[in-house]
């Protein structure tokens, strides 16, 4: 409570709607009850709808009859009235007069931006200028410009600020740094031929969705009136400049005032405003700008008349009718008034102050974190003042975290651990490559090198060559609370400010480079399930697979399969081809990089089963799928830096569908220690019965007992009976171990992965158990059909 009192002492005038009809606590208790156990911090991705808002929408749709607005019935007239009112609400939100602006409904902000790009009057004399901090949906406009022979270039804009952090955006206080000019048809126009009769477009976001930095609306008049001055007389500054603002993010708290700033185009997304509806956006367009757009396609609703068998069409005169192809999403449009009702009640200025107070509080706390050696923990990506009165700061806090030695924690590690703590956030570059490269200091060479190394959007390659490839983004909404921010702060403190010392004192865990040994347990991982689209099904994607139990009778050579979702037991003869009906092949990638710089790719030749068997498994997992069995395989290699294919080679024995290794060993003593920690955590937090786990939760094929907990971490090789194994290092655990069975259903919790993360985390991996490969050594003369027997002694050799 002392922490909150301190927070309220500094931010109490801004936080929680002190002068509103409801306090923030009342809003959360009555309108967001579903957030009881969740900390939602991805409002820049999609904010949340109010439960009262959805009740009002449901009541509206269940008590009203809305017809197609292109019809003439009474229900259609009702819809037309609702749409007309919705357009006016959108204009009012941005203080835009209908005499000067129109509201065109689109399928989202991206569609609004695309509409501008594909219909803008580009010519070889035009210029498309855009800030580095732009979403891919804005960068995509560049394709239209370049294809029409226009020039395009990015700019960095630096605005002077006053003592309160507010921008002083006069033409003399704005510095524009131009990036290289891009052209595709240079032969069509020379720089000296550029004239003032071309139409140019300048695009920028009202708020950067990577850093949260806001751009001043004064840029609108500066570019329109003084482009030649700020571009220092560049020939590309000539012509008539028009301005496009991507307000998808910034409009939620600071909509542009179009009565003051004559923006030509403003793109809006409604789910970014109030959570619902999705799939609906708007383009607010100046009437004189609309007349310049050159639309080619026509559709239902956009024409006054057309003749099918001759080249004749007469388009409608209205701006909205001219650009809204087909039937608009009228039921979604009818629902936005219930979202605007919330905004009008709370007011955008109060929401802005509330959100900024949380963002400023979080930034200050994160910047104060220090490791034991005095090194800072957190790097923030913005250039704004830490004063709550700053007009340049939005709802976003973008960051990365460092270890005491200065190396980076991967952002995916942060995201995965946050999820275990019930915290929802976003990581990566957020579809904003320019801001990502700018703030992370990534050169063109870095970006291309990362791409050649296999890094693409949404993958797990979060640190390459010692540099982050993205960031962690926290973003607040109008319903966010101090408690949300505090839980994230506590999460960072407990998970990243100090490296868990208990695990560091244990054995060092090692990783080897041979991911696909050629020997495994008999019949182990010879089968897999494929969807009808060719996707390999795993328990991560289809948890119902974990309900399937198997048993092989080696004497009768029968595989028995059972599932609570199927009435009968399925039996398949493992030494018979009677069930098989054809072959096919596919490729699978290995999970580890080999020492020679190659990733392994294995080409599998598999046998397929008859429909009756496929139907049984389809019923078991709840989706259509096919069972296949490995019958032959080849190693292939692909270079890690450019993806070029190498040669294939046959292997002496079949490589089954192993993930990282064919053997996973778990120690009962290690599981017992984990259970003690789970019990202690349960008692500490008073959260009911302990989340006891047994060794089989980790899906091992070797379980040992005796010795000390985690002694296996340091084993280099081991002998079980007369069979030798080499350790490949620790097994990196994932959310799969959090699934458990209850009354024939698959349930999910945060344990035991959350507890393991608190003391078994090394370089972004949560390690438990060890991976092994069979090591024949110099025992080639022995029977290759070695047996492992329950109760045999295990002899280990540590490093």
Automatic annotation (TrEMBL):
Q: Which GO terms describe its molecular function?
A: lyase activity; molybdenum cofactor sulfurtransferase activity; molybdenum ion binding; pyridoxal phosphate binding
Q: Which residues form the active site?
A: 431
What EC number(s) is this enzyme filed under? 2.8.1.9
- Cofactor needs: pyridoxal 5'-phosphate
Q: Where is the MOSC domain?
A: 628-797
Work out whether the entry's keyword set contains Transit peptide: no
**InterPro entries tied to this protein:** Aminotrans_V_dom, MoCF_Sase_C, MoCo_sulfurase, MOCOS_middle, PyrdxlP-dep_Trfase, PyrdxlP-dep_Trfase_major, Pyrv_Knase-like_insert_dom_sf
Which GO terms fall under biological process for this protein? Mo-molybdopterin cofactor biosynthetic process; monocarboxylic acid metabolic process
Highest taxon above the source species? Eukaryota
- UniProt xrefs under Pfam families: Aminotran_5 (PF00266), MOSC (PF03473), MOSC_N (PF03476)
Broadest EC class assigned to this enzyme: transferase
Recite the UniProt keywords alphabetically. Molybdenum cofactor biosynthesis, Pyridoxal phosphate, Transferase
Relate the protein's function as given in its record. Answer: Sulfurates the molybdenum cofactor. Sulfation of molybdenum is essential for xanthine dehydrogenase (XDH) and aldehyde oxidase (ADO) enzymes in which molybdenum cofactor is liganded by 1 oxygen and 1 sulfur atom in active form.
Provide the protein name. Answer: Molybdenum cofactor sulfurase
Specify the species: Durio zibethinus
